[in-house]
Write a structure and sequence with these properties.
This protein is mainly alpha-helical and 191 residues long. It is 58% helix and 10% strand. It is built from seven helices and three strands; from the N terminus they run αααααααβββ. The chain has a three-stranded antiparallel beta sheet, with no helix packed on it. β1 and β2 form a beta hairpin. α1 runs antiparallel to α2 and α2 packs antiparallel against α6. The longest helix is centred in the N-terminal third of the chain and has 20 residues. The chain is globular and about 65 Å long. The chain starts with 8 loop residues before the first helix and ends with a strand.
Length: 191
């Protein structure tokens, strides 16, 4: 396989693992090794496109017959890799590869184009689902409600109270010591 410039499947899996685990340094290292060994960057690109397609199929389908020409031992690796990132992340990776296709086909710097596309993919922050964000906000809101109902404690574990001083002008000044310092809140009170 090496004589033909074809990428070993284990090396392809290592490259994809580096992308999925957000390790751009390993991406550069593995890809550099491939080029040093004479692997064809266009062939690597084609293999990556097929592999990310398989990851998306694994993510959206539990039907193992969807992997027509994939050996059984590779199906389990693909399924494992597909669980490392969300469907949306895998779709973004595939889109980046598609965006890169013309440059891979036309550029005399194919190696650099493929390498930079992979580094770009490895640096992408994971997509956070809106449901997940709302869930975290609701949990935070619940915690804040509980914290607001409990009396504040100073560093010695003693209860602190909010001190309110009524000024003759009808403006109330409240002081509350917080862990990071002192907060002053001015508010008007009907007097």
């Amino acid at each position: 396989r090496d004589a033909l410039g074809v990428v070993d499947r284990r090396t392809l899996f290592r490259t994809v693992d580096a992308v999925l685990t957000r390790d751009p340094s390993s991406v550069v290292s593995v890809v550099s090794q491939l080029y040093t060994l004479g692997h064809d960057p266009s062939r690597l690109y084609d293999d990556l496109l097929e592999h990310f397609h398989s990851l998306i199929v694994a993510k959206v389908s539990e039907d193992e017959t969807a992997f027509v020409d994939v050996p059984e031992h590779e199906v389990s690796v693909i399924q494992k890799q597909s669980r490392l990132r969300s469907k949306e992340d895998l779709m973004r990776f595939f889109a980046i590869l598609l965006e890169t296709e013309e440059a891979v086909r036309r550029s005399k710097y194919t190696q650099m184009v493929v390498e930079i596309a992979l580094v770009r993919m490895a640096n992408l922050e994971p997509v956070i689902q809106i449901d997940e964000v709302l869930e975290k906000l609701e949990a935070l809101q619940s915690r804040l409600k509980i914290d607001n109902e409990m009396p504040a404690l100073d560093r010695g574990g003693k209860s602190r109270s909010l001190i309110t001083v009524q000024e003759p002008t009808g403006i109330t000044e409240s002081h509350r010591t917080l862990p990071r310092g002192r907060e002053t809140v001015l508010s008007e009170r009907p007097g």
